[in-house]
Amino acid sequence: MRRGVLIALVIVALLLIFYFGRALGGAPPTCGVCSGTTPFCDLGKGACVGCGSDTDCAAGTYCIPDGSCAACRSDPPAGCPAGTVCVGGAHCYQCGNNNDCPSGELCDPGDHTCKQCLGDIDCSGPTPRCAGGTCVQCAISTDCPVASPVCQAGVCVVCGSDGDCPGGYCTGSGADSQCVPCVAGDGTRPCQDGSFCVATGGADQCEQCRDDGDCAAGQACFGGQCWRGCSSSADCGAEEPNCINGVCVKCGSDSDCAGNAPFDRCVNGLCVQCAASGYNPDDCPANTPYCYSNTCEECAPTDGDSDCTAPGRPYCRLVNPGSASPSYQCVQCDGGTGCDPRGATPFCGAAHTCVACLADTDCPTGDCSQGACVTCDRTHPCPAGQWCSDSTGGQCIACRTDADCAASPDGHVCADGFCRVCGGPQDCGGETPYCRSDGGACVACATDSNCSSPTGYCGTSANGAAWGSCVGCTGDADCTSTAAPYCDSGLNACVGCVADSDCSTGRCDPLTKTCVACTVDADCPAGQVCGQGVCGESCYSWVPFSPQSGPQPAAVGYGVHAPSPFYSPASNYDGATSPVVTAGGGGPYAGYMICGEVGANTAVCTGYWNLQGSSPTKYYMDGAYDTLHLQDGYSPMYYLQADPACGTTLATTTDPTRALTFSGSPICASSENASWELPATRAFESYNYDLRRCHNMFADGAVGLISQKVKPT
User: Which of 78, 413, 456, 544 is the most buried (most CB within 10 A)?
Assistant: First the structure.
């Protein structure tokens, strides 16, 4: 008897090979004998694998798509604590890719943690540098402006130690730090030029004298300086002709400075431009309205950058220091700030304007001249097919006129010496009437004013949206509806939530972007399931039936064994009996039965069959009608029964974690008549995690995961 069973099993295995060879239209997949660390046969791949499901793995490990057991699994998630994801089947990390991180953060592929930035390209505005995964004002001191030239913990400050203050000392810390020439009352921080440290109420100052006793014979102290002593103006010379308080000075009042414009105000014996510090339109002209150190300036450094409001010149800096006429002006850039690091002029030059280069090493040609990378001149011609923009020293350009771009793959319009798709709106039209700023394409918008609700914002290279496309939002500030207050950076659309933290209760549904009570069954109380965001009692149940008992309505079912993650496409049989297929090695299951009953003892079936213990279940296929006749005495099938309160319409989903299951496997449904209504002749199959999709068992049928539903309350 045993020998007969063994022979039958061998014949069954050979017929399986024959079946797959015909069904797949090529050489049949074979596994041979599977044993050792790969004891299971993947019939879809024709290879021995370590597992076919989690039950094949040791406790605490899980079966992953490549057929091996691993410490954790990413899809469906298993083995990792909440808030972490499985990476490489071996470790649980905060993230495996950017989608695992909160909005606005990126996944670092090195340590798999979510960070604000991975490089400078991820930062902009007042914090353009990336340091330790955070966007900061500076990474090194050369990133800082002259007014606060030291980088300390990512922030530009005046000083961090005395070494940052040549000829002086550093007091305070952080934003309150300042360099002072001395500290009154501190014998360890005197004036380094030998003068006297005087407390002034602000930063202490080094002065030549404190009183007459500090001056040489014949001199007196006035305004912290030693002047020639006098009893009357007759004792004074032409340079300081006025005797005031016993010293010879330039002036004693504004009238002494008359005719000396613009130095027509008298302060401490000197004729100066202005007297009162700060905004002083009375003493200063409109183009330099601020008084600083008795000089009229375009901006006052004591006000920070607040005096500079003109577009493109946001910084107040000292220009031409060390020259005969230094001045504070509003400038384009300073240090590492103000210039676009990805633009044509990424460096800040000595004149505080953005330039192409500061040194030869900044140029691909190795030649920097007056802030510009020079690629050609009279002695260095351009390569064939290019022209020099300036014979005295300029750039090699691709074109001079549109005619030079006739054969260019980059576009047929000459703009700024390069062949582009467009040079301006005159080159565009229709639904894309605007030219993108880089000339690379005609687009739907150039600014927000070109867009209208509900997509009222224009995507740019700066805001991260699709460049030149009108989108619903570029940030949360664009979302004003209380129903959708968050901007999804992936969709550029206003949504109800992006993460669970956006919901006052429940979870954020990643598919609908709305706050719901649940997204998976584990979110619900025991005995309930999650259906379309709501916890409750399932609408569906699997009911066993026997094909011998007569027709059942919408009788669509499985064999009694757990579904396998592997599958084989359906194929008509043109012959007689088709026996069951055994798993490699002759184990107790080899797949599952997928049938829809259409008459007494008859069911439409697709898939491959199961083994009933050591005795095979026997079916045969009628080639003429593509029907399966079940012989007597074998296990029951199952069909899907819906509660009357739920209706007969089957909903679908793309997420296997939200699908109806059979024996723990998400269930797909396929219908020859493409109907999603019950009752209908329907076949079911399990979701294929390896391919991340359902398999269409009918060439022209609809196919998808059946969404779990709960009974109405």
Answer: 413
Determine the Cα–Cα distance for residues 381 and 376; give it in Å rounded to an integer: 6
Residue 695: name the closest of 675, 672, 670, 664 by CA.
670
| Tokens 């008459």, residue located | 599
CB 94, CB 114: distance < 8 Å = yes
- Distance (Å) of CA 484 to CA 103, 469, 479, 498, 500: 15, 21, 7, 10, 14
CB contact at 8 A, 274 and 263: no
Q: Where are the beta strands (DSSP E) in 173-314?
A: 178-180, 196-198, 205-207, 219-222, 225-228, 242-244, 247-249, 265-267, 270-272, 278-279, 290-292, 295-297
From 43, 55, 51, 49, select the one nearest 13 (Cα to Cα).
43
Predicted pLDDT of residue 638 = 57
Q: How far is CA 480 from CA 408, 457, 477, in A?
A: 46, 13, 7
Round to whole Å and give the CA distance between 260 and 413.
Answer: 59
Strand partners for 487? 494
What's the pLDDT score for residue 573? 25
- Reported residue count of the chain is 713
Query: How far, in Å, CA of 335 to CA of 153, rounded?
Result: 17
pLDDT in tens, 436-481: 888 888 999 988 889 988 888 888 776 667 788 999 888 888 898 8
Q: In which region does residue 578 sit, left (phi positive, over 0), alpha (psi from -120 to 50) or beta (all else)? A: beta
What whole-number distance in Å separates Cα of residue 504 and Cα of residue 574? 61
Q: DSSP string of 19-79?
A: HHHHHTTSSPP-----BTTB-EEETTTTEEES-SSGGGSPTT-EE-TTS-EES-EETTEES
What is this structure's pTM? 0.36
* Amino acid, res. 156: C
Which pair of structure tokens corresponds to residue 20? Answer: 């797959």
Q: How many angstroms separate the CA atoms of 112 and 114, rounded?
A: 7
Secondary structure element (H or E) that encloses residue 6, with its range? helix 2-23
Residue whose pair of structure tokens reads 């493409």 in the numeric block? 674
**123 phi/psi in degrees, rounded to 5:** -115, 160
The least confident of 258-272, 313-327, 511-525 is: 313-327
Percent of the chain whose pLDDT exceeds 90: 14
Look at residue 361 and tell me whether its pLDDT is greater than 70.
Answer: yes
701 vs 368: CA distance, rounded Å:
67
CB 295, CB 277: distance < 8 Å: no
Note the pLDDT tens digit of each residue in 154-202: 888 888 888 888 778 888 888 888 888 888 888 888 888 888 888 876 6
Residue with tokens 């074979």: 30
pLDDT digits (tens, 9 = 90+) for 602-661: 333 333 333 333 333 333 333 322 333 343 333 445 566 777 777 767 777 878 888 887
C-alpha distance across the termini of the chain, in Å: 58
Contact 547, 597 (CB under 8 A): yes
Structure tokens at 47: 């290879």
Checking if the pLDDT of 306 tops 60, the result is yes
From the number of C-beta atoms within 10 Å of its C-beta (0-12, 13-18, 19+), residue 401 rates as exposed
pLDDT score of 296: 93
